[in-house]
UniProtKB/TrEMBL annotation:
Name assigned to this protein: Hydroxymethylpyrimidine/phosphomethylpyrimidine kinase
Gene Ontology annotations for the cellular component aspect, listed alphabetically: cytosol
Superkingdom classification of source: Bacteria
Similarity-based family: Belongs to the ThiD family.
Amino acid sequence: MKNCLTIAGSDCSGGAGIQADLKTFSALGTFGMSVVSAVVAENTSRVISIQDIDVKILEDQIDAVFEDIEVAAVKVGMLPGIESMRAVAAKLREYRPPVIVMDPVMVATGGGNLMNPEALGTLKKELIPVVTLLTPNIPEVEIIAGTGIRTQEDMKAAAVEIHRMGAQNVLIKGGHLEGEAYDLLYDGVNFYSFSAERIDTKNTHGTGCTLSSAITANLAKGMDMPSAVAEAKRYLTEAIRHGLAIGKGHGPTNHFHEFYRMN
Ligand SMILES: Nc1ncnc2c1ncn2[C@@H]1O[C@H](COP(=O)(O)OP(=O)(O)OP(=O)(O)O)[C@@H](O)[C@H]1O
Ligand SMILES: Cc1ncc(COP(=O)(O)O)c(N)n1
């Protein structure tokens, strides 16, 4: 079995963050480990408060995993600010895991800032150059690339721009656009399109986390990038289709239903 590590925030309501990542890692047959970057008091409707994890224990958690266990792939999710970004970037440069997938989490589905906007420069300078794959949504692309995104052509131009910043691969998620759920992958040479039907639901809490951790697990298992993304999107679409109407706001994706037991 391959070992996957998530470095991300804790969502006590279980739909996003490390909780979504660990459920996805397990459902896809990998061994999941988690380094907590922040504790978020949140639910399907709102973010109440955030406590950043002290940098020393953030670094110690990463050391504890890497000094003992072989890590096939790392997923990086919420990093709340400059200090945590610098620490994680330095540890990733030190341990050089074979795969690093980063979801540059900025705002929760239910609203609420999860990243200090002042950390944008650090994200661009220290983290984007070390990642195997960056998976921004449309608002995140607009902030990182500094351009408005309305069309698939805009997505292409922004993907090229983010690749230039140092990400080996870029997957722009089109969930925030209208029409079918269209995502675009750029590997520096080719563009790959991934389309799925848009499911009419408000239960989309954790979709970005689920997709990026599914890609991480698939890469850990040895798939090439386009296959890892295609399979992860299949997984995610079913997890949204069977999403759980839990809570008063955006319910979570569902990792355990008949589809997975049969696949
Ligand atoms: N209603 C939907 N039906 C099917 N797929 C969807 C739907 N909404 C989003 N997706 C897909 O889910 C993935 C995440 O997309 P999105 O652009 O919403 O990212 P995100 O904003 O990071 O997610 P999150 O909702 O977790 O913040 C993409 O593959 C997107 O195409
Ligand atoms: C700890 C944590 N990490 C990430 C997200 C983003 O997920 P979503 O945008 O689906 O709410 C979240 N809400 N909480």
